[in-house]
Amino acid sequence: MNGTEGARLFREAWIAGVRRHFPGEPEPGFVTPWEDVPEWQREVSGIVAERIQGLMKLSEGNAARLSREQKGRFVAICWATEVSDQLDEPDPAELAEWPDLPVWHRETVADVFEALEKTA
């Protein structure tokens, strides 16, 4: 899977997770279609997708045994790291620590990991 495919899959899994876990109607920015996502988000999505797939390859698939929380934390840490690298002044919400993320967000990033682990 190339970077663009991984980035798109990341976004599709994110949107599906938001629709599944967000309480009520999500903010439009949370479910923005791929075509309207800013370039920096596309790049970060692709890099994080590659990191998930790289972890799966490096662990010979054993990373699938991680708990949902561990999977979600991995995505959240990778996302925050790449956002910090891409943006001079990132929104603090993009860099939030795991305990500060709402439950819907934690569940969504775990879903993202699980969607991408299947492609590795």
Strand element count = 0
Class based on secondary structure composition and strand pairing: mainly alpha
Number of domains: 1
Largest beta-sheet details:
none
So what's the oligomer here? single chain
Helix content: 55-70%
From the spread of the alpha carbons, the general shape counts as: globular
Number of helices: 4
Mind sketching the topology for me?
Elements: H1 3-21, H2 39-58, H3 68-86, H4 103-117
Briefly summarize what is shown.
Helix content is 61%, strand content 0%. The protein is mainly α and 120 residues long. Helix 1 (3-21) packs antiparallel against helix 4, helix 2 (39-58) packs across helix 3 (68-86) and helix 3 (68-86) crosses helix 4 (103-117).
Describe the structure.
- This protein has one domain (3-24, 33-117).
- Helix 2 crosses helix 3.
- 61% of the residues lie in helices and 0% in strands.
- The protein starts with a helix and ends with a helix.
- The relative contact order is 0.21.
- By secondary structure, it is mostly helical.
- It is globular, with a radius of gyration of 13 Å.
